[in-house]
Amino acid sequence: MLRIDVQKPIHGSSGYMTLFVNQQVDKGDFVVIMGESGAGKSTLLRIIAGLEEAKGKMTMGNAVWQDAHKRLPIQQRNVGFVFQDYALFDNMSVKENLLFVNADVPLAEELLEMMEITQIAQRNVTTLSGGQKQRVALARALMRRPKLLLMDEPLSALDPRIRRKLSRQILALHERFGMTTLMVSHDVTEAKAMATRLWFVESAEVHEYPLSMLDALYEEE
Amino acid sequence: MAWWQQIEWSPFVLSFKLAGVTVAILFVIAIPFAWRLSQSRSRFKPLLEAMTALPIVLPPSVLGFYMLMLLSHNSALGHFLEESFNIKLAFSFTGLVIASCFYSFPFMVQPLQSGFESLNRHMIEASYLAGKNMHTTLLKVALPNIKPSLITALIISFAHTVGEFGVVLMVGGNIPDKTRVASVAIYDLVEVMDYDKANLYAGVLLLFSFSVLVSVYWFNYRHKIRVGTVL
């Protein structure tokens, strides 16, 4: 469904290098992307979303997202994106954050319900806890019913109890909306609980590994 | 006679009118300009920033001189306007407005630009990811989240325009009710050695400028307390 064949120069942990990605994602996959910090995991998500430029080709189904001639703007790709720092619109309430994306009230209410934040729908987002903020960000990311959900360490800033609950909620959203999901993570337990596929980024190259190799990959370090 | 009866208010009215019109015009021009500048990664950005900041460091007489050259009927622009529309810009209120727009431009742009630049980059990106274009993002996301910068830009450029002297004198001269603004009126009073009146006029401007600054800093202080960056 999503075919990525791109290259981008990055300055990562070991100086300047070129990020090589040649991968394919199928509908319904839940890909967890792991690897050392500064290896280009976030950059990869940002390239897919259109937030950063890269050389190469990318297609989503029959649509060309980028090739030698064109680059589809961010707005037209319709991907859901969740940042580690939530990136909510601070001038709006919880519900307004959702409705700003798309004025679909029934969908907003369903998402608020699923994320268990109906009670705080009218609150200004600056007054929320980290866990609450990330649930709002998740709900907001789904307001355009994206086929593709990208999450850049969505749980890393939260405490373990909230992480477990939120990871269950993410899986529920993934199922309910029939999405394809790519999530950057550092947490082996999290990856085991959520992933159907595993990508590992090392020396700026993205390789796929069987999930059974997860423990082995992290033992080596 | 009470002190306020000794003051001729028309120079003050003129100063405030000039500042009001200038701020209204700058507001419309500076917001998109500051936004573009804040989002730009172009290598021409430093050049644009330097040009924007120029009125801060130039002696007002230099700026005023060039403005006078530009606006007078000897210049191509001035000649064209005067011949075609019978508009005289030099020594007129309109001319003052144009000159003031250049003079106060950095005071409007710089607070806005630094406000936009201090926004969480991801928040802006989230708006694009939500399918919104740059225009909607600016109006609905960026601007409402830089309120203190917006207030600072508006008030400081207003006060700065009220406080201008050199440019006004060069471009507008000293015509009562037309171009004699408060700062020029003070200069005038000193020249004729009417120090008592000059003292009054100066006192009014001093009080005004101080209250403006207090209100700006007070607003920003309150805002910081509300959003919790000051305990």
Characteristic key phrases:
heterodimer, A: 221 residues, alpha/beta, six-stranded mixed β-sheet, four-stranded antiparallel β-sheet, 8 helices, 33% helix, 29% strand, B: 231 residues, mainly alpha, MetI-like fold, 12 helices, globular
Write the layout of secondary structure elements.
The complex is a heterodimer of chains A (221) and B (231).
Chain A: E1 2-12, E2 15-25, E3 30-35, H1 41-49, E4 55-60, E5 63-66, H2 74-77, E6 79-82, H3 94-101, H4 105-114, H5 130-141, E7 148-152, H6 160-176, E8 180-184, H7 188-194, E9 197-202, E10 205-209, H8 214-219
Parallel strand pairs in A: 3-8, 3-9, 6-7, 7-8
Antiparallel strand pairs in A: 1-2, 1-4, 4-5, 9-10
Chain B: H1 3-6, H2 10-39, H3 45-57, H4 60-71, H5 76-85, H6 93-118, H7 121-129, H8 134-142, H9 147-162, H10 166-172, H11 182-191, H12 195-227
Helix pairs in contact in B: 2-6, 2-9, 2-11, 3-6, 4-10, 6-9, 6-10, 7-8, 9-12, 11-12
